[in-house]
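Help needed: design a sequence for this.
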């Protein structure tokens, strides 16, 4: 056997103990290498003393093969051949409820040279590890060469100091930080490199470390460099000792964490600035505040929020002055909103993907903010990096929370308005018939007459009518329930059955079906039918109502006296009525039910000169 510098040319004899073929990949790798004589044994007992290394198998039980205990073989082999160098190859270690680290420790504890658990495809590694186990591969580098290699190659600052703070050696990065060569740093102290006040602090710090024996871990320090820029570094220092255990200086490393601190500050700035969103009143103001926040954060130079227009359902940018982001990527804004997923626009904007890490040089990120719209960001000519996306996600989440809050407040305000309406109605309209009934009750006590009782009955009937319609208005304050395909003719029939008035005739044409809440559609029709009777039929008169189809809805027309053109826009106002017996809520209820479905309703004139109400915006099938 030769004594080459690294051993790669040495001739080796390697015994492989392979009882069931699971060591085949190792055997194949060794046979493919030069100067290695491979001898295969089925049992460790047949391995002789003339081998340079023996490889044993340790493997779990399978459906077709029994378990192989490499440690039992190792103990027996070393009892017989104490000088034999042995490596144990662990096959499928993960299935044996252990880890590669524990397996390695166990091999060494049993006297083996090394453990091997690498993938069989790593043939070069297998060969080198076997040469190492056989003692034929030796590192030619001295300790000094290894240290030099470390200090030249390591990408962060490393320094070694003596007991008075002089540099014994440094990494190339440390020396270049002060514009010196490594050799020029030897013997210098912090006093020659930085302000004396800071050098004093560092000297006392290192003296304390040597005296206490305790290392200083991950100390983050801020300073201003020669160009006036703020910098942050993370420093770790520890005492170093001579062979007798006496402290002779310190060793440490410093890593520049300026970018990490910058990002940390930006994240904090986004969170702090987002507090302004809490004070923003409505959707428009929230969008404007968002753009203002982004202008103060360097990593978010161009931000534009597009929100859904409540009347049209279309996306529109909140900040029209900064329209370049939305104008350039409007189609992708729409796609992000429709899909409800983030999109990253790549390169020239011709394509977009849903995952940042597969985007090719993304130039914009479009992040949905719930069902409100889309938060868009671009850095202009540069690509959007991962940190910028993280910042954008933080701000977009705060924007969504602010929009949710504004919507809840608006709904609460609307509910309060409805409560005020109900209070006004109860205090005004119910008070009148109640006063009438109360007055006639007093008269009837002194002079019972049928006329008084009739007046009392009329007042109570009036109160019942008002109460029914107020309850309907209360329901109107809620979102419509589940919608289904409703046959309009069926809804017309249900509405007619609820009105016990022989003066009404309802004729229905082939209207078809529409998507609606059935019970709410019936309520709408009931009010239109009652309106026709109340305004179109006297005590002995009769009114005919026709329900017919429109291209995007349906109409309800009667043959009564109709509605003057000047009053047609006012008839849907709450409390509006031209009838002494009317409440002024019937048509208001019709309009609110229609709007709850996303429809529109308008009053006009029928072919017979009566009233015609058209409900549009509904898909008729």
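Sure. Designed sequence:
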């Amino acid at each position: 056997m030769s004594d080459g510098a690294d051993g790669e040319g040495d001739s080796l004899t390697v015994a492989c103990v392979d009882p069931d073929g699971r060591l085949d990949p190792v055997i194949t790798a060794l046979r493919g290498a030069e100067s290695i004589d491979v001898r295969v044994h089925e049992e460790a007992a047949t391995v002789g003393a003339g081998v340079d290394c023996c490889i044993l198998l340790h493997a779990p039980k399978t459906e077709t093969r029994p378990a192989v205990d490499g440690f039992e073989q190792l103990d027996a082999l070393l009892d017989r051949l104490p000088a034999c160098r042995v490596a144990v190859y662990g096959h499928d270690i993960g299935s044996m409820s252990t880890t590669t680290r524990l397996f390695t420790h166990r091999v060494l504890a049993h006297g083996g040279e090394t453990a091997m658990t690498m993938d069989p495809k790593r043939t070069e590694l297998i060969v080198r590890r076997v040469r190492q186990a056989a003692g034929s591969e030796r590192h030619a580098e001295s300790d000094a060469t290894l240290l030099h290699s470390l200090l030249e190659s390591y990408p962060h600052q490393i320094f070694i100091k003596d007991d008075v703070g002089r540099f014994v050696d440094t990494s190339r990065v440390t020396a270049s930080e002060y514009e010196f060569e490594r050799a020029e740093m030897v013997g210098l102290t912090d006093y020659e490199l930085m302000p004396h006040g800071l050098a004093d602090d560092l000297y006392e710090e290192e003296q304390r470390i040597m005296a206490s024996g305790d290392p200083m871990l991950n100390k983050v320090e801020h300073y201003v460099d020669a160009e006036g820029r703020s910098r942050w570094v993370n420093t770790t220092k520890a005492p170093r000792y001579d062979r007798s255990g006496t402290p002779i200086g310190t060793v440490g490393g410093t890593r520049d964490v300026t970018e990490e601190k910058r990002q940390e500050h930006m994240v904090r700035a986004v969170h702090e600035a987002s507090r302004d969103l809490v004070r923003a009143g409505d959707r428009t103001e929230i969008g404007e505040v968002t753009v203002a926040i982004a202008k103060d954060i360097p990593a978010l130079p161009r931000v534009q929020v597009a929100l859904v227009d409540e009347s049209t359902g279309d996306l529109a940018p909140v900040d029209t002055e900064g329209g370049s982001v939305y104008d350039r990527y409007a189609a992708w804004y729409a796609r992000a909103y429709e899909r409800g997923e983030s999109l990253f626009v790549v390169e020239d904007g011709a394509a977009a993907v849903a995952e940042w890490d597969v985007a090719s040089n993304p130039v914009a990120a479009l992040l949905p903010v719930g069902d409100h719209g889309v938060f868009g960001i671009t850095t202009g000519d540069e690509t959007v990096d991962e940190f910028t996306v993280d910042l954008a996600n933080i701000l977009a989440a705060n924007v969504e929370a602010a929009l949710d809050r504004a919507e809840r407040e608006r709904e609460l305000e609307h509910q309060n308005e409805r409560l005020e309406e109900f209070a006004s109605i109860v205090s005004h309209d119910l008070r009148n018939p109640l006063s009438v009934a109360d007055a006639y009750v007093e008269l009837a006590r002194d002079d019972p007459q049928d006329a008084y009782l009739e007046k009392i009955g009329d007042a109570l009937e009036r109160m019942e009518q008002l109460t029914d319609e107020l309850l309907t208005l209360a329901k109107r304050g809620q979102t419509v329930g589940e919608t289904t395909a409703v046959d309009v003719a069926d809804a017309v029939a249900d509405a007619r059955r609820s009105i016990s008035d022989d003066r009404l005739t309802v004729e229905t044409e082939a209207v078809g079906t529409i998507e609606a809440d059935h019970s709410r559609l019936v309520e709408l029709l009931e009010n239109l039918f009652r309106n026709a009777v109340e305004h179109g039929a006297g005590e002995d008169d009769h009114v005919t109502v026709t329900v017919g189809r429109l291209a995007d809805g349906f109409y309800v027309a009667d043959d009564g006296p109709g509605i003057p053109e000047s009053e047609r826009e006012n008839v849907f106002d709450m409390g509006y009525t031209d009838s002494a017996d009317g409440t002024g809520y019937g048509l208001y209820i019709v309009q609110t039910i229609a709007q709850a479905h996303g429809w529109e309703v308008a009053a006009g004139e029928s072919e017979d000169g009566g009233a015609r109400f058209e409900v549009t915006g509904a898909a008729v099938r």
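The radius of gyration is 44 Å.
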